Amino acid sequence: xxxxxxxxxxxxxxxxGPVTAPNRFYQVPHCNGMGHIRPQAEAAMRGIKAEGGWGVxxxxxxEIHPTSDLSPYAExxxxxxxxxPALRLMTxxxxxxxxxxxxxxxxxGNHAQNLQSRAxxxxxxxxxxxxxxxxxxxxxxxxxxxxxxxxxxxxxxRARDAGFDIIYVxxxxxxxxxxxxxxxxxxxxxxxxGGSLENRVRLTRELLEETHEAVGDTCAIAFRFAVDEMLGAxxxxxxxxxxxxxEMLAELPDIWDVNVAGWDNDSATTRFQPQxxxxxxxxxxxxxxxxxxxxxxxxxxxPDMMVSMIRKGIVDxxxxxxxxxxxxxxxxKIEQGRIDxxxxxxxxxxxxxADNLGAPIRCTQNPTMGEEWRRGWHPEQIxxxxxxxxxxxxxxxxxxxxxxxxxxxxxxxxxLADAADEPGGRVLLESRLPGLGAWMRVADYRLQDLRQRANxxxxxxxxxxxxxxxxxxxxxxxxxTGSHWRKDGVGSNTLRKPPEIHAGAAIMTPxxxxxxxxxxxxxxxxxxxxxxxxxGVLAEKLAQDGRDVTFVTPESLVSTFTSLTLExxxxxxxxxxxxxxxxxxxxxxxIEPGNMQISCGFTGxxxxxxxxxxxxxxxxxxxxxxxDALKGKGLNTLELIGDAAGPALIADAVYAGHMAARNFExxxxxxxxxxxxxxxxxxxxxxxx
Length: 689
Ligand code: ADP
Ligand code: SF4
Fold this sequence. Notes:
With 689 residues, the chain is α/β, with parallel strands linked by helices. Helix content is 30%, strand content 19%. The chain folds into three domains: 3-356, Aldolase class I (TIM Barrel); 390-482 and 623-676, Rossmann fold (3-Layer(aba) Sandwich); 487-621, FAD/NAD(P)-binding domain.
């Protein structure tokens, strides 16, 4: 069967209430840190998804009223008619490419703090806000409920006026009133909106009916519903109330968009949920209970899996947030039979991290994500080369691979050399650690591309010193030589007082473990002043190897950064389950044979951790030897990129490689002049509202 026939089912149009999706590719709502603060950026990003073939492109949760104010996060906003023009930019960009635009209306109840609006926080029952913040939400009375229903209806009308084709009622991710009313622990009412499931679903039913009545003649009504909280008998389960809700509301929406709650389960990382299509077992029942089309997600990037999900009757439309971020052109690539060109999501949740910080979305795999408007970057297009012909890239980690691939796409003769046995740099090494296997996709995708190009030569086992580089006689050199972990314990918490390291102490770094070394026998102490994933992953590995591990961190939780990728609670649980001893709020003071001395971050009180070796995860030293030696040697271009220029995330290294390739042969004046476009608050009269 040709690939076109094999996947043709994915390209069938699907009727959704009064509108028709051109195919089965459905970008479900996802946050992006742009929202009402950066509407032009969001419009361009969504437009690119439509261009890439997503038949439906949704926005993100959209505040319908000042009592649902998610500031400082940058979600969409539709408080009144003044918000319509910004959203119109998005619907125009999506329609321009022939796709349908969907909007996710949301009232966030106690998940909104109303920091900007200072409005009272509303909820089904009296309860704290959903943040460690001394503020409570008040139980909505009947007038509040009537008002909320009116706000939702009015927002639906405004959404229709803004050009949206699909309008959501949203009950998921533990984030909205509609879902909060359904959950008994959040709804202790004893009126007709509380108690029995029928009563708890009443508000959602009303929202669905009223939205349909308001805009259902022109817009499809989608219902985003978390069928299972993944808490077993302690929460809503697909086998019980989740199923009953679907049964009760079966024919009310035009589309069922179903998933699991909370967000950490819906957007599970590959580290904790390696299986693509991991939601199928939960959502699979929905289609049998409704005649309406069903869309579902689960980090689905394989066209074979997509077809099988449709053939098996699990879903009608293939939902995606992260796969569409990693590759906005995924549908088009399938349609054109370019399957091996799909840039697969690695499930790292760096996209989520950005949104959680209120910053514009970025992606490890797709460095153009978030740059569509402000830099005019297109994920599939790059300017052809200008006058130069050749480039050498030293180092085939994420920075070097991306740089080489984009330079090759621009048409240069590219030589890529790496000292290691295999290309891949840090992703090759890190992907061998527990749960990080999917990260190798960062290297695989780029190597697959590079190996097919006649204008690329790749050399492994090729350590280059300055003489070898100059002998190659390639005038343009990009140095992506990476970094290595420090062995002296210096990190942000020990800058003032570097630890005393006594002779004879057994000290290791992540580089040693990733190179295959084992700490000497006996207990191992890990000191983490990096706070991302590496120390936690290494603790997991060593504990799995049967080692006695103590994890020390100056923070009050392990791997604090990973809260932003929705994993922290899982990492800490896993380490505890594996018997790792955790000591928080302590700073490294000294290491001597058989002992690590730490001091309390608050009182300074000292404590001993008996151990035969210490694994230090603190800072990294940039590998700049080659770069430094090549300075002043007459090269046309000499640029240091990636971790060698600034150790950071894999996403940063990929981005740096991409940026260097884009900027090659641009004048410094040009680069400086249009750093990137910004959306600046208008100072015209009426502009500041
Ligand atoms: P980044 O994240 O910036 O891409 P990595 O640490 O992942 O950096 O990759 C750096 C790569 O550079 C490693 O694979 C390493 O083997 C390679 N490398 C470092 N120095 C040299 C050198 N002098 N010659 C060739 N390869 C080098
Ligand atoms: Fe996937 Fe990571 Fe990109 Fe998010 S940042 S879309 S999880 S590759």
